[in-house]
Amino acid sequence: MATSELKSRLSPEAERLLGEPDDVRIRAIREGTWMTYDRAKEILARMEDLLDYPRITRMPNMLLVAPSFNGKTSILERFMSLHPPDLDPAAEVTTCPVVMVEAPPAPDVSAFYSRILDALMATYKPSSSVQEKNSQVKHLFRELGVKVLIVDEIHHLIAGSLNRQRDFRNALKSLGNESKVSIIAAGIEDAYNAFVADPQMSSRFMPEELPLWRPGREVGTLLATLERRTPLRKPSDLKSPKR
Amino acid sequence: MKGLTSSLWPIRYKPYPDELLTSWLVRLAWGHGLKVQTFCNLIFGGQRQVWNRDVDRLGPDWLVNELADRTGTLRQVAHATTLRAYEGVLYPKFRAAGTLPWIQTLMMYHRKREGFGLQFCPVCLAEDEKPYYRRSWRVSFNTMCIRHQVMLRDRCAQCGAPVIFHRMEMGQGKVSEVGSMGNCHACGCPLADSPREEIWSYDEDALDFHAALCRAIAEEETQSVDLDVMRVMHQLVRLMLTRHKTVTLRQHVCGELQVTDLVKVSGRIGLETMPLMERHHLVQLVSWLMVDLAGRLEVAWLARAIRYNHLGKDFNEPPAWYQELIEKFADWRSRFQ
Fold first, then answer.
1. Which residues in chain B are contacts of A132 at CB distance < 8 A?
2. Which of A70, A141, B3, B215 could connect to A66 by a Cys-Cys bridge, CB 3.0–4.6 Å?
3. Residue B310 domain-assigned?
């Protein structure tokens, strides 16, 4: 294949990598890349809305629901990367508009607060009471200017008794109410069921779904983009339905 | 493990101008939403206690460097929050034990402070966006706020308790309930509401001399403070407080200025442990002497209020000019000529 033809099908970055040894190219491919698509754009735009939302009595929240391996975490991480914390040593505090945590494996409120404090890189007493941790989290949210809290794997909520599930949901609700922070919860369909069980939660968390990928124009475009960004010397023609 | 924990804190307040180390430390702890004792235990461990000793004075490296590194503050800036940084300015050599000349004692008793070692200006506290305590408020001769032309205060006007701002959260449920560092720890009354007393003095020149010292220390212009002058002044203060029967320098100066002596107890209590009014009175008397040291000491000597041997007693390596000055009083017979 002519060099010019090879080059035309690759992005400039992939083109640059073509000259590198195999191990470098393999590593680059494994690192992955962010590829946007229509639904992801919509969800990201909705997240931006939440970030810009004025602090009101009842902050809007979002529940991102999708099956496994459908790109939920990638979208959340993309949003995080667009709004990183400002760690300027000369500043008096870290400005941290978005905080992302993973829900603890069981609906344990204390562990949930600990995860938030860890994400904020704060000094805290692990053995503090739930109330103390709650108070510290709210205080730090105020100090650090946190506006959006992302809780991934929210379906862990259902891995506990009904009472503990309720406690966890209440903690989530009151944290949002008291600190005036928008919460983006993300998880598989089970999360949706767990939230729907509580009318107060279902009215606060607007569900956004990521549908399963099906053959079609959008998948084709996505695969074509993936191929363009992958530094392989021979074309794979991923988007072709025949393959 | 140390490497993993030595990153910057999310809350990394820098010291305010002339801020005291403990004031900065309390702000940082509260900024993290933690009580000071909890915060210090988490950062420094149970082996390194902070609140049952005068850390402002000791300025231990493990504490100062940790705060500097975790807040992105220059180490020399962090060191300047300690009273140790007055070495070579107010006293020649730092020592960990005993009284340091011109540094107010706190009279520590476990984690309490029974002395009135920390002063404050109510107007400064009222003006601060977030009230904080100045390092210069621990200096004995600094009895007035030159900026606001008011006397400093050394206790709560409401309940008479000393200022112990790190104990404000005692008995409080949450740090967020503490409010401001500018309140009295005992009764909760805002110290900024204390009565504002105008600066008083016995002599205009003496006040100017005293005020220049207060200004230099409060505005961090310590280069304009002469250590030798401070040492001589401290020697004169000691003589004014001595219980030696043949030394009546204080009474003599009070007589010269025609003022009432405010010092209630002299002798074992040093200037650094005295209440604010008595200190102000004493520093005014000494300042009056310093305005014309040779002339006024001679008058005192002639009036038999002081003897030559007392002027140099327990004064190690006095400045040459002072030694030369007191040599004039070496021959007691010349008093009768």
1. 174
2. A70
3. yes
